[in-house]
């Protein structure tokens, strides 16, 4: 309840607005909900036409592949890049010849890689609908009745790519934790949790691919735990698979079995993944501690101890990534790793942010939360692939920036209320600037295809309430300012959703003749719960703030 309590004034104002049945805002809100459903319905293709998913030109496909390789694959190792590129060329040769010689699992890998790359293709996520179709095609193939053919390295790679693609395209991104359990059990059934040295003779190539995949599965497990508030479903005693060796992909071949790994201070294509693995134990401990349902609570003393351990791990990680002899770690990799690690500081201290506003005992936690939220926001800002993912992606790409913005809004409100003065109150300019940037950012997300407008409405409402406090407005004047801000935000959202719905309808009607001969519509995924804008006290808890207990 900590997160919702911080936003209680805003929630109460929304509750008051909902009670006014004559409000124009309710009418616009209802229309936005209807449009959002229409847009999402048109993104869900008929199951019978999934195999007819259109491919882009090879020129565009090449750009999508490059986008994936320079972003996701540089952090989460899934593919052996030379092998994938050979399959990719074979895929396009088959397309050119009009044949289907490429195995289905490799076709899925290509489409999933393109779907992930589509989120960094342009600022508007213009290929969202196509990416969604590719992801749903993969979900359909991988959800077939179990067979031993799915217990293979290529199929496991496709499953991992599907998890990542759902995060970038928004296909059930908030349900990743559920499918992560299946992914972990599948990997364990394949023996991925045992180090290949302990298995019958395994080639160097197979050894390293297995280690890389298990390494990425561990990342998915701990991150989905933080995302969902569920247990990580893995312990350090559940596996003995070692981290990957420090080898570039070109050194991994089926012929050469005697390649020595590079020194740790030599940069390779797996260096970032290896460095992240060193921080896995402390991050796993944090995920377990925060999501433990037992009645015993984490003491503040223990929390500070864990904070110190995480801080030391972060320092060592930073020194390592900046210390390669022959290479400078790319800005995307540095910012992405920074985003992931700093998130654990926020998750660790956020449950104490509310109490810290009234109890100086927890002042350190308040400072950590604000400093971390500020740095997280700065990390996702800019003009690189990470900034594109924060606008076009889903899952933690969306959650982290909006968490940061809402925390900063709560801090600004608290600072203004704490200030005793006769004239206008003043707030920290840097925090005010971030909050205003977050308003533009949340609108860009809707322009890029986001159909959930709650984040944008929340930020606009909070800005209005903070401005009202700063100007010493009366309660009634403050409420009127709140209503005006919400209505303006709804006007903007409505216009964007109307345009998006129109485009979706035109695209859909172009296929009506063909679809008359197809099977009835089949909707994928779990339907959204009713109540597009429910203002219960936990309205934002599961959607924006982490599910942790104090």
UniProtKB/TrEMBL annotation:
<dbReference type="InterPro" id="IPR051430">
    <property type="entry name" value="Fungal_TF_Env_Response"/>
</dbReference>
<keyword id="KW-0539">Nucleus</keyword>
<dbReference type="GO" id="GO:0000978">
    <property type="term" value="F:RNA polymerase II cis-regulatory region sequence-specific DNA binding"/>
</dbReference>
<dbReference type="InterPro" id="IPR007219">
    <property type="entry name" value="XnlR_reg_dom"/>
</dbReference>
<dbReference type="GO" id="GO:0005634">
    <property type="term" value="C:nucleus"/>
</dbReference>
<dbReference type="GO" id="GO:0006351">
    <property type="term" value="P:DNA-templated transcription"/>
</dbReference>
<dbReference type="Pfam" id="PF04082">
    <property type="entry name" value="Fungal_trans"/>
</dbReference>
<keyword id="KW-0862">Zinc</keyword>
<keyword id="KW-0479">Metal-binding</keyword>
<dbReference type="GO" id="GO:0008270">
    <property type="term" value="F:zinc ion binding"/>
</dbReference>
<protein>
    <submittedName>
        <fullName>Fungal-specific transcription factor domain-containing protein</fullName>
    </submittedName>
</protein>
<dbReference type="GO" id="GO:0001228">
    <property type="term" value="F:DNA-binding transcription activator activity, RNA polymerase II-specific"/>
</dbReference>
<feature type="domain" description="Xylanolytic transcriptional activator regulatory">
    <location>
        <begin position="176"/>
        <end position="250"/>
    </location>
</feature>
<keyword id="KW-0805">Transcription regulation</keyword>
<keyword id="KW-0804">Transcription</keyword>
<keyword id="KW-0238">DNA-binding</keyword>
């Amino acid at each position: 309840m900590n997160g919702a309590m911080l936003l209680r004034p805003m929630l109460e104002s929304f509750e008051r607005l909902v009670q006014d049945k004559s409000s124009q805002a309710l009418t616009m809100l209802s229309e936005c909900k209807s449009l959002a459903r229409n847009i999402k319905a048109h993104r869900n293709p008929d199951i019978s036409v999934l195999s007819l998913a259109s491919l882009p030109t090879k020129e565009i496909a090449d750009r999508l592949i490059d986008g994936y390789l320079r972003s996701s694959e540089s952090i989460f190792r899934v593919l052996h890049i030379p092998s994938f590129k050979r399959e990719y060329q074979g895929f396009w040769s088959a397309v050119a010849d009009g044949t289907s010689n490429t195995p289905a699992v490799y076709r899925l890998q290509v489409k999933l890689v393109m779907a992930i790359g589509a989120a960094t293709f342009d600022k508007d996520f213009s290929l969202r609908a196509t990416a969604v179709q590719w992801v749903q095609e993969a979900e359909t193939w991988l959800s077939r009745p179990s067979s031993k053919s799915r217990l293979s390295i290529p199929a496991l790679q496709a499953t991992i790519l599907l998890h990542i693609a759902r995060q970038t395209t928004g296909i059930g991104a908030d349900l990743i934790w559920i499918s992560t359990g299946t992914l972990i059990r599948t990997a364990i059934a394949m023996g991925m949790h045992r180090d290949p040295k302990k298995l019958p003779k395994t080639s160097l190539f197979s050894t390293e691919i297995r280690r890389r995949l298990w390494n990425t599965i561990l990342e998915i497990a701990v991150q989905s735990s933080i995302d969902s508030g569920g247990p990580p479903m893995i312990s350090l005693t559940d596996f003995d698979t070692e981290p990957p060796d420090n080898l570039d992909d070109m050194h991994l071949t089926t012929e050469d079995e005697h390649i020595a790994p590079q020194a740790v201070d030599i940069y390779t294509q797996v260096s970032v993944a290896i460095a992240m693995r060193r921080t896995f134990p402390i991050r796993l401990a944090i995920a377990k501690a925060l999501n433990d349902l037992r009645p015993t609570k984490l003491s503040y003393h223990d929390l500070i101890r864990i904070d110190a351990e995480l801080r030391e791990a972060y320092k060592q990680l930073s020194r390592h990534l900046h210390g390669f002899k022959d290479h400078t770690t790319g800005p995307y990799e540095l910012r992405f790793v920074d985003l992931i690690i700093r998130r654990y500081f926020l998750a660790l201290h956020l449950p104490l942010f509310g109490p810290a506003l009234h109890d100086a005992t927890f002042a350190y936690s308040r400072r950590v939360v604000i400093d971390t939220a500020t740095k997280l926001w700065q990390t996702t800002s800019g003009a690189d692939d990470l900034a594109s993912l924060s606008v076009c992606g889903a899952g933690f790409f969306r959650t982290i920036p909006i968490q940061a913005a809402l925390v900063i809004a709560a801090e600004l409100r608290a600072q203004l209320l704490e200030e005793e003065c006769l004239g206008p109150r003043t707030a920290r300019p840097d925090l005010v600037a971030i909050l205003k940037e977050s308003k533009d950012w949340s609108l860009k997300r809707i322009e890029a295809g986001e159909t959930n407008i709650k984040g944008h409405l929340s930020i606009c409402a909070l800005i209005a309430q903070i401005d009202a406090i700063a100007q010493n407005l009366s309660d009634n004047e403050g409420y009127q300012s709140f209503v005006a801000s919400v209505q303006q935000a709804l006007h903007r959202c409505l216009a964007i959703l109307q345009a998006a719905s129109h485009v979706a309808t035109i695209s859909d009607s172009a296929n009506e003749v063909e679809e008359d001969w197809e099977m009835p519509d089949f909707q994928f995924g779990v339907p959204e719960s009713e109540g597009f804008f429910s203002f219960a006290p936990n309205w934002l808890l599961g959607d924006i703030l982490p599910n942790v207990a104090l």
